[in-house]
Amino acid sequence: MKLELGLFNVENVIPNERTYLQGRTLFVDLNELRQIIAADRRFSKIEIEVVHPGDSVRLINVLDVIEPRIKVEGGEAFPGWVGKMGVAGMGKTYALKGMGVIEVGLMRDFYGAILDMNGPSAEWTYYSKLHHIVLITEPSLGINQAEYSHALKMAGLKASTYLAKTSISLQPDELRLYEIPPLHKSPVNIKLPRIAYLYIAECHETLKEPFIYGDNPRRYFPTIFHPNEFMDGAMVSCTYDYSPGLKNFTYSVMNNPVIEGLYERNGKELIFVGTVLANAPLVLAEKKRSALMAAKLVRFVLGADGVVITKEGGGHPDIDLMECCEQCEILGVKTSLLNSEMLSPDGTGIYSMIAFSKSADCVISVGNVDEMVDLPSVEQVIGGKTMAIDIQGPFDGAMRIPIRMLPNAISQVGLTKITAEEF
Amino acid sequence: MESKVKVIHYINQFFGQVGGEEKANIAPFFKEGSIGPGLLLKSLLGDKGEVIATIICGDNYFNDRTEKAKQEVLNLISPYKPDLIVAGPAFNAGRYGIACGEVCKLAKEELGIEAVTGMYPENPGVELCKSQVYIVETGPSARSLVEAMAKMVHLGLKLAFKEPIGRPQEEGYIPRGIKRNTISKDLASERAIRALLAKIKGEPFITEIKSTSFDQVPPAPPIEGLSKATIALVTEGGLIPKGNPDHIESHRATKYGRYSLEGLRPLAPERFESIHRGYDTTFVNEDPHRLVPVDVMREMEQEGIIGRLYPYFFTTTGVATFVENSRKIGEGIAKELKESGVAGVILTST
């Protein structure tokens, strides 16, 4: 499968009477965008704001961040949502780099993040460094959580497509080629280790799982998934009730740094043989079966010597991470894992994960989710006056919050450089 | 702080030049100024600090009568109001290491004085106090004294002057088991890929989360005479009276509640709800008996299958809860149940 990804570097976003991309500036007709989204009757109110890195702005109730992308030729982007049901990850896709679309909403049990556009936050979360189109929404009367989350996802993806459409007839700043051949054409006689990536998706319940090709992942067995499918939005976040430090925002799924890192080294230090997508069932026997089947694909179908394993969520997916690690090691596949730690605010906790395995001798820490961070006061708060989770306002003052409240500061796929070091 | 840091040095009978094993039973006493390794300490402190006294104690005395020895050492230290305690270094001497660790903890906890010691990583004193006290890593024997004492002085002065303490490998202390978030040079994904390639090649690689294991509790023996037994209901499913009178957290709980099961419909959905953040609470909120099956238990009570249902149920939220807190919660609940003669518990988890 071959994907050409055209990158357009956006360095400014300016509200305008017409929407177009000129040089590195994206002009956006916010009224037109609002009308497109407002066609969905599940919203009673939609406001759109534009924010920039360095603004003295705090966004609250941040539910997802999406990179604007559009399919230019061949295949589908965001299949099952704004795209038709078709194969993602092939053909040509254009992406607007340096910016995001943010979904904001508030409903009981929604677990939104806090994103500062200036101050120390920029060192912790990648999203402080991007320009954003922020969709601030309110649900219509009688709309339940699942319906609202679906409407939000559609709004985010429609906006993403609307913005990326400006690039369609232009020349990208950079054209990247992502290609892994089918297995029967996989390079042989090259003395490089064959490396796979095993992605464990959360599948907990409504609002606590991603969607794959437009549907939730509860009925999946582990499956071969082409890394390019992630880049084209075959998986999107629908984790609206999930700790922002533990979930994988859509942006981090599309720009998964493990996949980028493996592609960069492909043919030089390793052979990237592909990706296996597994889920994280709620019953132990199912976890064991899922891990076994995932390991079997990694070893006997992809023929991997080594595998990087990541998961989504805290708590029970730790067990899936360990089960997958054990099963891979049993079959002779060397593993390295990424995981967050739960060590209490002062970092003194003894058990950083809820499962351990002797096979897990190589675990990379993406940080202690409980450590507190200090945010300075800001001039403007966008995204409401209250939050559904335990954190109380006022939100414009200096705040001391757990780092897990910053979107993807703790990133399960390694989007940041944060780690937890022993002192 | 005055111009010079006031230091008290703690050493054992051997380094205090009292004698060897035959003198290991001597009680703690003090000497003005420095002696033995204290002379090195004195010269390393230079004009930044002063060894105002040395406390010498036999290792056996300290280990055999720990509480008494601690009190005696405390009484010797307090009148001097030092700024810093330097203990040892103890190298790989186990009893000496334990004494050094206890003295440092004592200084910090009882007197609020900074303290530093030095030990070989396998010294049993390390596990005893490494989370509370900075321990400079030394070699197994006194041959490493000069290097060890230099690091102890460097670290001790930093502590006394309240300067920030760097990483273990920079300062030379044994990691204390306290983790802090830091910014690494590379993305986590890069570190993972690099470590994997090294592992495959058989080269050294770094793991950032060490493996450990949880303790296992063997189940209690079967209940004898169920028809006479008192059975209790306990849940981590977050069922609480509406309004949450005890302010139980919806996740990362630090406490539990205990609520009455008396009356006709003790868990009516008008009065109880679940605040748990880890599962869909719709079905529990429709009928809390699905989580805390008091209805079935009352039937069993009437049928004589069990003797009696304990008149209270216990509840907390088990989601992202620190193991240390879970243990305290469990111990608290178990204590009341045990004291009340409860023979068995039905623990419903979500």
Class by SSE composition of chain B: alpha/beta
Largest sheet of chain B: 6 strands, mixed
Catalogue the unreliable spans of chain B.
Answer: none
CATH class call of the largest domain in chain B: Alpha Beta
Structural class of chain A: alpha/beta
Say what the CATH topology of the largest domain in chain B is: Rossmann fold
Under the CATH scheme, the architecture of the largest domain in chain B is: 3-Layer(aba) Sandwich
CATH superfamily of the largest domain in chain B: Response regulator
Largest sheet of chain A: 6 strands, mixed
Q: Count of DSSP E strands of chain A?
A: 24
Characterise the protein shown here:
The complex is a heterodimer of chains A (423) and B (350). Chain A is built from 8 helices and 24 strands. In chain A, 59% of the residues are buried. With 423 residues, chain A is an alpha/beta fold. In chain A, the strands form 6 sheets. In chain A, strands 5, 6, 9, 10, 11 and 22 form a 6-stranded mixed beta sheet that branches. With 350 residues, chain B is α/β, with parallel strands linked by helices. Chain B folds into 3 domains: 167 residues, Response regulator (Rossmann fold, 3-Layer(aba) Sandwich); 31 residues, no CATH class; 123 residues, no CATH class. In chain B, 33% of the residues lie in helices and 21% in strands. Chain B contains 11 helices and 13 strands. The radius of gyration of chain B is 28 Å and the shape is elongated. Chain B starts with a strand and ends with a strand. The interface between A and B is large, with 70 and 49 residues.
Output the keywords.
heterodimer; A: 423 residues; alpha/beta; six-stranded mixed β-sheet; 20% helix; 32% strand; globular; B: 350 residues; Rossmann fold; four-stranded mixed β-sheet; 11 helices; 13 strands; 33% helix; elongated
